[in-house]
């Protein structure tokens, strides 16, 4: 056997690769340990459906595995899937989308990386809501962009407004980009339709690229979500099969791109991933069939019941204020009467009850030298994607813990 010589220098570590950890991973690790010893863990920290892909999708996957080569597809995806996604925009939002503008990606995560690379230079300023989905911040940061997190409190449903964009622009000029998510993670709130239209116009007028994360569309309870595409403009709209379609691990998402980004994104995707997973793409074509939609809508009915249960029972935790949970499967709960150290509180809760929640600092990291009103130290995210009786049991346990 040949001996490998010891390295002469330590490997290089780039600063840009040193992204923030997901603090929920610590909770998941602790939950795994507890599950092994106690077997009573209820993971309300997991941001994914508890159901498999619809039957029609699983059957399409089986047919594709048996009958197709499943080699690489075009970098922008299977043409049948791109056409199916484009037709979904006509049916759902009444907007015509040319399938040539649809890029199929490795989850929506793959779309964000490619779009950020295609649209933003190193040093460009991109705005996002705080609290917000951490991967926007971490990916943009790794790409050398300057992320400005807008403090969004409960009074605006934790969402940015035109007034906030104006205030930023007065002092710093128009940003290169704005990321919106509606419904949002971690709050489940929607941007109201008129505000979404106004922000879309604001961005178009100032040359700011709006990246509209619409991956929770389909999971709304009282009114449907609106797409940024309905207001015209040149927004990038990002979608995914992960959430409504219950296909997180299949890793298929998409972006609807303004014409100018199609070729750069095609080249980037071809280099970064070659293509999205072929079996997932072949199966995803069946996700819009009436049988699949019927199955998926029954999950949404359960999420709605779960939302109502959470809203009804939060007062028993001493929580009396909650921004309207319009969609997705999250409630972002202010627990400031219980703690100012959400990671510690989540750990203690897990130890005492077996219920795992996500500390708010994943979505709004806190710097003790620069405290902000939106610091996630006072919030936790609860995911109600699971079944209703288990959710009820988890809520009972938390009530017993906080009223002990
Ligand atoms: C707001 C938001 N955007 C994007 C993603 C990434 O999802 P995926 O890559 O599975 O489409 C997530 C995942 O939780 C999310 O919550």
Question: Which descriptors would you attach to this protein?
Answer:
single chain, 404 residues, alpha/beta, Aspartate Aminotransferase, domain 1, Aspartate Aminotransferase, domain 2, 2 domains, seven-stranded mixed sheet, three-stranded antiparallel sheet, 12 strands, 40% helix, globular, binds pyridoxal-5'-phosphate, transaminase activity
Describe the structure.
There is one protein chain. The protein is an alpha/beta fold and 404 residues long. It folds into 2 domains: 149 residues, Aspartate Aminotransferase, domain 1; 232 residues, Type I PLP-dependent aspartate aminotransferase-like (Major domain) (Aspartate Aminotransferase, domain 2). It has a 7-stranded mixed beta sheet, sandwiched between helices. Strands 9-12-11 form a 3-stranded antiparallel beta sheet, covered by helices on one side. α7 links the parallel β5 and β6. α2 packs across α9 and α4 packs across α8. It starts with 23 loop residues before the first helix and ends with a helix. It binds pyridoxal-5'-phosphate.
* Total of domains: 2
Mean pLDDT: 95
Q: What is the 3D form?
A: globular
Per CATH, the architecture of the largest domain is 3-Layer(aba) Sandwich
Bound molecules: pyridoxal-5'-phosphate
Q: Which spans have pLDDT < 50 for at least 5 consecutive residues? A: none
What's the helix-strand series? HEHHEHEHEHEHEEEHHHEHEEEH
Q: Fraction of residues in helices?
A: 25-40%
CATH superfamily of the largest domain: Type I PLP-dependent aspartate aminotransferase-like (Major domain)
Number of DSSP helical runs: 12
